[in-house]
Specification:
Layout (H helix, E strand, L loop, with lengths): L1 E5 L5 H4 E5 L9 E11 L1 H8 L6 H4 L12 E9 L11 E5 L7 E5 L3 E3 L6 H5 L4 H12 L7 E5 L4 H12 L3 E6 L4 H6 L4 E4 L12 E6 L6 H6 L1 E9 L11 H10 L6 E4 L6 H12 L7 E6 L3 H9 L6 E5 L4
Parallel strand pairs: 8-9, 8-11, 9-10, 11-12, 12-13, 14-15
Antiparallel strand pairs: 1-2, 3-4, 3-6, 3-15, 4-5, 5-7
């Protein structure tokens, strides 16, 4: 099969290449999926770049632990293991697993669900990581409920577009923070209000939010707290900064401060599970959530796709399409 192979860390466009390699061998509990499309998210760029340096402790000190990048995909079931009963050859599915930038990927059956009937493979591939992160940030960590005032920072990004729509699905009043060119799009996906960060500082607006979902990662903890109600919840999703810790420093400060203030300062790492993938499928099929696609790239241009995401200016999700005979 053809797959994107990476043997060292660096600028993705320089260190990944399309090669022939062996098709994955599945275990008894696994599913082999013929990939139609694979989503690209900031974590893919970070792992390809080897940033922050701390992640190399878990993903390989001098070279990537996994030679084929990519974590989210949509496609058709090609084969199933002996213990798999939920899927059959030909089923259309989406989910997550290691090595998605390839013609085939193997993953556990609990990391897959049926593709939404009203979504294309390209749209479905944009959901599993970013959509699941937003769902857990809004619902579980943010505890968003009806009539809550919610601020989504980075509302036009991969996670932010889902966070806006999911918060609206919970009947919250949503304000999205984005750049000038993306305000119309943010409003079109359901935001009640949009703030252009190039012209207005939301922390000086005099308005306080019950929950802030921060997907941008470049504002101080004190700035974010100024915009929260006294008992509001801040959810830190990812981060940006220096090459060693990136957003980890701010996360640690939030962890240290939270026990001593009335506000709830939370950071988290999303976890893949079948129930949440099913919840996302239901939201899409009920037309409450729609994947927003920024750009698509062919598999041969995976390096360019990763570089594009690494610039952090995408409007929605970037997707790699995989064409096979």
């Amino acid at each position: 099969m053809k797959a994107i192979i990476q043997s060292t860390y660096g600028a993705p466009e320089d260190v990944v290449e399309l090669r022939e390699t062996s098709k994955p061998v599945i275990g008894d509990d696994d599913v082999l999926v013929r990939v139609h499309a694979a989503g690209v998210h900031i974590g893919d760029w970070l792992l390809s770049s080897g940033l922050p340096y701390m992640i190399r402790l878990g993903y390989g000190l001098t070279r990537p632990k996994y030679s084929i990048p990519g974590m989210e995909f949509a496609g058709t079931v090609e084969d199933v293991g002996a213990n798999v009963s939920r899927f059959h050859v030909g089923d259309e599915v989406f989910g997550s697993g290691t090595g998605a930038f390839a013609e085939y990927v193997s993953t556990g059956q609990d990391a897959l669900v049926a593709k939404p009937t009203n979504a294309t493979f390209t749209e479905a591939a944009a959901v599993p990581i970013s959509g699941l992160t937003a769902l857990q940030a809004v619902r579980d960590i943010g505890g968003v409920q009806a009539r809550d005032n919610v601020l989504v920072i980075g509302a036009s990004g991969a996670v932010g577009t889902y966070a806006v729509q999911i918060a609206k699905a919970y009947d919250a009043e949503v304000t999205g923070v984005c750049s000038t060119a993306k305000m119309d799009m943010v409003r079109s996906i359901g935001a009640d209000h949009a703030i252009d960060y190039t012209k207005e500082d939301f922390s000086h607006s005099g308005y306080l939010w019950d929950a802030i979902i921060d997907t941008a990662g470049n504002r101080s903890l004190s700035t974010l707290r100024e915009a929260l109600t006294p008992t509001g919840t801040l959810v830190i999703v990812g981060g940006s900064g220096g090459p060693w810790l990136m957003g980890l420093g701010r996360n640690l400060r939030a962890l240290a401060v939270s026990p001593f203030v009335s506000q709830h300062l939370r950071q988290f790492l999303s976890r893949t599970n079948r129930e949440d993938l099913e919840a996302l499928k239901d939201l899409i099929e009920s037309d409450k959530v729609k994947p927003i696609i920024d750009k698509t790239f062919p598999l041969s241009q995976a390096g360019e796709a990763l570089a594009h995401v690494g610039q952090r200016h995408a409007q929605g999700k970037t997707v790699i399409t995989v064409k096979m005979p």
